[in-house]
Write a structure and sequence with these properties.
The structure holds two protein chains of two kinds.
Chain A: E1 8-9, E2 15-16, E3 19-30, E4 33-44, E5 48-52, H1 59-66, E6 74-79, E7 82-83, H2 89-94, E8 97-100, H3 112-118, H4 128-133, H5 137-155, H6 171-184, E9 189-193, H7 201-218, E10 221-225, H8 229-235, E11 238-243, E12 246-251, H9 253-257, H10 260-267
Parallel strand pairs in A: 5-10, 5-11, 8-9, 9-10
Antiparallel strand pairs in A: 1-2, 3-4, 3-6, 6-7, 11-12
Helix pairs in contact in A: 3-6, 5-6
Chain B: H1 14-24, E1 29-35, E2 38-43, H2 44-61, E3 68-72, H3 77-88, E4 92-96, H4 102-112, E5 116-119, H5 122-131, E6 140-143, E7 157-159, H6 160-169, H7 171-184, E8 190-195, E9 205-209, H8 210-223, E10 231-233, H9 241-254, E11 257-260, H10 267-274, E12 278-280, H11 283-298, H12 302-323, H13 330-351, E13 358-361, H14 368-376, E14 381-387, E15 392-396, E16 409-410, E17 415-418, E18 423-427, E19 434-435, H15 439-445, E20 452-460, E21 467-472, E22 477-478, E23 484-485, H16 487-495, E24 500-506, E25 513-519, H17 521-530, H18 538-542, H19 545-563, E26 573-578, H20 598-604, H21 606-614, E27 618-626, E28 632-640, E29 642-643, H22 651-656
Parallel strand pairs in B: 1-11, 3-4, 3-5, 5-6, 6-7, 10-11, 12-13, 13-14, 25-26
Antiparallel strand pairs in B: 1-2, 8-9, 9-19, 14-15, 15-16, 17-18, 18-20, 20-21, 22-23, 24-25, 26-29, 27-28
Helix pairs in contact in B: 1-2, 1-9, 2-3, 2-6, 2-7, 4-5, 8-9, 12-13, 12-14
Classes of the chains: A alpha/beta, B alpha/beta.
Chain lengths: ~270, ~650
Amino acid sequence: MLDNSESYVTEDGRTIGGVVMEMKNITLRFGGVVAIKDISFDIREGEIRAIIGPNGAGKSSMLNVISGFYVPQEGEVWFRGSRRPQMRPYEVARQGIARTFQNIALFDGMSVLDNVMTGRLNYMKTGLFSQALWKGKAEKEETENREIVERVIDFLEIQHIRKTPVARLPYGLKKRVELARALAAEPKLLLLDEPMAGMNVEEKEDMSRFILDVNDEFGTTIALIEHDMGVVMDLSDRVVVMDYGKKIGDGTPDEVRNNQDVIDAYLGVSHD
Amino acid sequence: MAQMQMGAEGKQSLPALLQRNAAQFANAPAYREKEFGIWQCWTWAETAKEIEALALGLINLGVNEGDFVAIIGRNRPYLYWSMVAAQAVGAVPVPLYQDAVAEEMAYVLGHCGARFVIVGDQEQADKVIEIQDQLHQFEHMIYLDPRGMRKYDHTQLHQFSHIQDQGRAARDELTGELAARQNKLNYDSTCVMLYTSGTTGKPKGVVLSNRNVIESAKNSAEFDKLTQNENILSYLPMAWVGDFIFSVGQAYWCGFCVNCPESADTMMTDLREIGPTYFFAPPRVFEGQLTNVMIRMEDASTLKRKMFHHFLAHAKEVGGKILDGKPVGMMDRLKYALGNALVYGPLKDTLGYGRIRVGYTAGEAIGPEIFDFYRSLGINLKQLYGQTEATVFITVQPDGEVRADTVGVPAPEVEIKIGDNGEIYYRSPGTFVEYFNNPESTASTKDAEGWVATGDAGFFEEGSGHLRIIDRAKDVGKMADGSMFAPKYVENKLKFYPDILEAVLFGNGRDRCVAFINIDLTAVGNWAERNNIAYASYQELAGHPKVLETIRSHVTQVNKSVAEDPMLSGCQIHRFVVLHKELDADDGEMTRTRKVRRRIVEEKFDDIITALYDGSEKVSTVTEVTYEDGRKGSIKATLTIVDAEVKPAAVHKVAAE
């Protein structure tokens, strides 16, 4: 099924591999409402793929289909060369897909460190009893996982808030902690739902930097939803544009920018 | 003492001292750095190996004797090793301020003609790459943190660990060369070159020899009885002479351990974890901590708050005396001991000062109340007076003779004389060799007999023999009526209020004084929060009528205290503005060490000064600002000018008539 699977090298020297995920004719309905209508697109290994569109276009629904939270009524999701059966979200997580949420979903009362540690849950094998005693295997396991978490904390430069309860953090930092938790799961594919919503310019610049660094340093494939067109165009390799549940554009930022349908969807069109 | 530093006598370079430490204290910790949440440690023996590998790698890369190697980054063991390794191969290390913008770096790198640059991370590397075309002698850059650097063109770029690997691989081949170069080093070879921040004009490269550094380190270590067991936290800029003396000079002389924080933001946590025994901080760090403690105590439970204030009042009374070894009654001592168990001890521990034996503050005047607060807790905080050209030490306060208003007695082996105009001159083993490539400045600063002009005016106090600094000699002027104008004196009084971060006084040659004031965002912001005052920006808060009223009351208090000094009563502030932006080094208004550049401020805000003198009530102004990434923008503001209450001129004038 992997047609144009030959890899290529981008202008800035990153290698983009073959297709890792393919959405084939996805249709998602909530009762009579069609949220996504017959959409197909693919995500290549190592690329930053953006999904954009006006409010209510079905972007978050699309991300939820990728993450396995919604099961489409029609269509197929192919991941790493095989058709994905219906899965629970934790099973999807075990396949190497991690995500962040549009409305931050962290454990408010827990410290940053503990929150990020939850990202390692799928790698922890010891049972409740031995973890409570914290002896032998459980201790070793936690130390190993903590090391990975500490590397993520170092990478995202949040050492100074390591022990701070999440509830006390400003919004921009919470977003970064959420990214940290997703990264702690060492994902192959990272899904970001509006990572820059509600941020000021400086926070957006920081976040963009981190997204690029994650992609560059770990080779993580990233699919993101974003409103800020400037950010999307700068960050992504390819962009899917949705409007009213339909795909109206797909291609490089430049192609999308010059696509008449996309311009109409964003700027409106006169009906005379 | 002599026994403690056994084997150090006669070692005439840092690499020689390193060898002594590696042999004598092989398994004692030399460096620690917090990384990935854990304190990583290197013993002296390991350090010697790391530095050797790096030095061999540098030779392998083509570093020649006499080359300049610039070092830019935050305090990390690797960068300290770079300085010693550079010296070991006969090159001269030149640490730069890491927060300098690219243009400033271009000047320094061009001036010394650095062939090699060692940087901490991508941020610094980018700045050097940006100015690369202006640097004709630049050849290779070495970076520490590989993050984000993978895609860069690596023809002139090298990763730090690779340089070390290459050095290890070439060990057999190059070890003879390294030994030969190291053996050539003596007391007269250059140890380091440090650029002074320069309150006026371009930075100057101060050349310090091994004699300067090692003799100064030795004298000061003996003065404070520093041992191999000290722990220090290195967080001040590596380009600053103080850090070089504490973290390199004294650390190598005594063989004690240098601890590097995880990042600038975690410094306070790391301070607490390390609990240094020997600590250095500029006044603003102590001020910041005190403000923090007071704010947190406001939020504490009633019992804790009452206990805190009760015992603090007692400490204020007797704490300083106990520290100075003066007689104190039995009951007071017992109560102090109780206070120590309940309040002072836990507080010191929270601040990270639980183990401090010697603490220093310098650079700016410290508020007497802040100074006394720390001393009353039993922290041996002292002041010293120094400058880069003296390899730090000019005067220091001996234990038991510590006061807030003097800077102490001449440091060991330092001679001091006061010039006719009140300017302070000194001569010492630490006196710098020269300003690099600048014989005129060298000649105008250091005379043939080795006396160096400090540019500060001061006098020795009768009786105690302690030095008191009045102001920068060139800043001391005359008012229109001929009375003395000493801006620093008044500004320092203002800055002792936590609400006021910075103040600049004008009035040289005029009939009265006016002032610019910067509010302290932390203190005033907290006050606003507690009083339900909403504000959207620094500018809005700075212009809030209630803030202006508070500042006015501070100014009135200062005027009152200034009026009491017959010599300086003319320096009272008649009118002032609270500025709409913080004075900033990026805009050239301050030096990197946060000293106000008077002339530049005066030129830049000329319109506001005019308004202060012509009686207008408001002034509209547009100010250019530079962002951290070097872009420029501007802020517009309308500032309210506030009239302050002035006390009657000193009585002695009336009496003289």
